[in-house]
Design a protein that fits this description.
alpha+beta; five-stranded antiparallel beta sheet; five-stranded parallel beta sheet; disordered N terminus
Length: about 800
Amino acid sequence: MICRALMLFILFCPYHLFASGVIRVNQLGYFPDAQKVAVFLSSERVPAGHFQLVNCLSGEKVFEALSEKSDASVWGMQTAYRLDFSSFSESGGFYLQLGDAVSPSFRIAWDVYEGTADFPLHYMRQQRCGFNPFLNDSCHLHDGIIVDHPTRSGERIDVTGGWHDASDYLQYVTTSANAVYQMLFAWERNAEVFGDQFQANGLPGSNGLPDILDEARWGLEWLLKMNPGKNEMYNQIADDRDHRGYRLPVGDTVTYGLGKARPVYFVSGKPQGLGKHKNRSTGVASTAAKYASAFALGARLFRSVDPEFSQKMAIKARDAWAFALSGPGVCQTACVVSPYFYEEDNYVDDMQLAAASLFLENGGKPFEQQAKYWGELEPVTPWMELQRARHYQYYPFINLGHVWLAQSEDSLIAKQFAAFMKQGLENIRRAAAGDPFRIGIPFQWCSNNLVVAAATQARLYRQITGDESYLEEESALTDWLLGCNPWGTSMICGLPSGGDYPERPHSAITYLLHQTTTGGLVDGPVYKNIYENLRGIHLFEEDEYAAFQSGKAVYHDDMGDYSSNEPTMDGTASLTYLFSSLEKEGRGATARQHVVKDSQGAIVRMNPSANKVYLIFSAHDLNEGAPFIRKSLKKNRVKASFFFTGKFYADPENQLLVKQLIDDGHFLGAHSDGHLLYADWNKRDSLLVGREQFEADLQANYQKMAEQGIDIRAVRSFLPPYEWYNKTVVNWAHQLGLTVINFTPGIRTNADYTTPDMPNYQSSDAIFSSLEKFEKHDPHGLNGCLILIHAGTHPARTDKFYHRLNELISYLKKKGYQPDCLAE
C-alpha cells in the first residue's frame, strides 16, 4: 500500500517538487493509429532511459521504449527527449512516465476529437457585432460614418453586423472574409460532423441549418453590407482609438467625434490613416479578391439552401473580381494613434483563391487559367519560406488556392500545385529539425494562426496526394495546440474541459464577467524580442509558466499579455477545418455509436432506434434490495448493470453478492470510491473536487473492483455518485478511458430514493406512471433508455420501487423492449 500511495502521489501532482522534469502531451488524446509523441523537458541534465506507458486505472505498464534525445537549448532547458509510442494502438486511458516525471492522463480512442468541430463556434458567436447572443443584447447599431472617400466622407451607411476582430471591437474585411472562407471550406469538406444546436441569431435552438452555415452567413451578410455597390467597397470599421480599456461591446463608450457611429474606411487603394500614422496600401486587389472568394464559395454552397441569396453573391463575386483586376496591390488596415496595423504585403494569393473559387462556382475555364497564373507568382506562402514576417505581412497564412488547384482535373496543374504545397511543408520541416516539439514556424505575433495553417496544409497535402512524408509534422503541430508545448497548455480556451487551457485571456469577458472566452484560439507564443519591445504589457499575476520562459518564445496565460494570450476571430475560424477533419477521421475509422448525450457530455440514452432498454442499479451504503433485485433478474432471465462504490465492493458483507452478480453474467462498474459530490448542487460548473482527488478516488474504486475478480480492463462505463457532475468531470473521466453514463431524464425512476418528508417525494405509483407517460409520448418510446433504480434506499421510504421490478420487466417485454446490460 505504501508503494501504491507513492504512485498515486506521483501521478496526480502536475508539477512534482521532486520530479526531474515534465512530460507534455496532447491533452485531448490520440487516435489509435496516429503518430503519438510526447516531449520530456528538464532544467537538469537527465540521462537517457526507457519510458513507460501506464494504464491509468490498473497501473499496468503496457508499453516501454527508449527515449529519443533532442535539442533542449532552443527552449532554455538542459534536457529534452521525444517519447514515441506510436506503435501502441490499444484504446483506453493512460499516462507516461520517465524516471520520476509523469504526464497528465490522456486517452487513446477514435472519438477523442468528437465535438471539436463545432467548439470554435462558441467564440465566433461571442464575437458577433449587432445582436450578440452571448450577451443577449445588441451593440454598435449606429455603424457607421464613411471616411476617406473622395466625395462621400461624412455620410452614414448601414454596416452593423459581422464579428469583432479580437478583444477589441474593430472589424476588418481582411480577417472576416478569410474567416467566412475558412468556415465554408470546413463545411464543404466535412459537412457530416457539424451540428445544429443554435438558431440563425446565435441563441440556443435548432433551425434546420448547421450552425457553421449560420455563422458563415452572418459574416456573408455583413460583407454584402460592406460592398453595397459595384466598385464600392469598405475595408474596416473603427480604428485603434478603440483601444481604451476593458468594456463589454454592449457598453462601448468610445467615440470618434461622429456621434454614436464609428468610422467606416473606404477602399481607396491608397495609403490611409486619419492621424500621423499611415498604412502602406498600394491597391485594392487584396481586399476585393477576398470579397470575391467569400462570395463565390458562398454562392456555390448556399445554392441549394437559399437560391436567391446564392444568386446575389454570385453577381457580387464577379463584380469584385473585376474590381480586383482594376487595382493590383494591397489594401492594408488603417491606424491612427499607434503604428500597429495588419501589414499585408502580398495579394497574388488572394487573386489565385478568387479565381479558383470562381472557377468552381461557375465552371469557366479561363478562371482556372487565371488561378494558375496568379498561383505561379507565389509558389510558397512567404512566411513558410522566409521563416519571418511582420504582423500579418503574408495573409492569409495558408493559400487554399493551391489546395483547389492541386485537385484540378488537369493532371499537370494538379501535380504542379501539389508540389508547391510540398515545398512549403519541406521548408517548415527543415526549420523544425532539432526542435523537440518539431515546430517549424516563426514565433511572430499570432503564431498559433501559423501553426493551424501549417497543420492544415500538411493534412490537406496528405489527403490529396496520399504522401505521408509530413505526417510527423502534421501531428506535432496539432499536438502543440492541445498541450504538447513547453508550457503544457492547450491554446484553445475551454478545451479540453478540466484541462490546462487559457483561463485568463486578454478580454473584457474575462476581466468583467470572470469567464474564459470559450472556443477562442489565443495568439500564441511570441519571440522574446517581440514581447520585450511591445508597448503596454503588464502581467496581472505571477507567471505560472515562469520556469518555461527561457527559450526562444514566451507565452503567458495572463490578461495583461495581449501579444500571446488574446483570442483572435480569424485564427479561431481556421480551427473549424482542422478539428472537423479530425472528427470526421475518427468517426470514419469506427462505427459511430448512436447515443444521446446531456449538456455535460454524459450518455443518457443509447441508440434510440433500437428496442433495447438498460436497467442500471447503483449502491453505496444502502443495498437492502439487492438480493430481491438479483432474484427478480434471474427469474426473468434479464441481464443488468450494477454500479457500486469502492466502499461497497470492499465491505465483506457485500462480497458474496458481488460474486453472485458476476456469476450471473451482469455488468459491474464503478460509482466512485467514497461517493463524493463532484459539483455544487446549485452551481453545476463549480467543482468540489480537484482532478487529483477525482482520479485517485476512481483509481481506488477500480482497485477494489479488481480485488473482487472483475476484469477492470473491460469496464469503461462509469456512473458518477449522486448522478451529478459537470463537463469537467466528464472530460476527466474520458482521459482515464471511461464513458460517463446516467439515467434518461423524464423517466423518474431515479426518484426512488425520495422519502415522504421530502418536497420532491415520488411514490412508486407516481414513478411507474411517469415511465408509462414517457413511453407513450416520446417519439422513440423507451428505446435506448437507461432506467436507474437504487439497490437500497433510506428506511423512511417503505414504498420501495425495486419491489416493482418484476412488474417493470413484464411491462417492458409486453411493449416489445429487450432489457439488456451495458456490455463494453
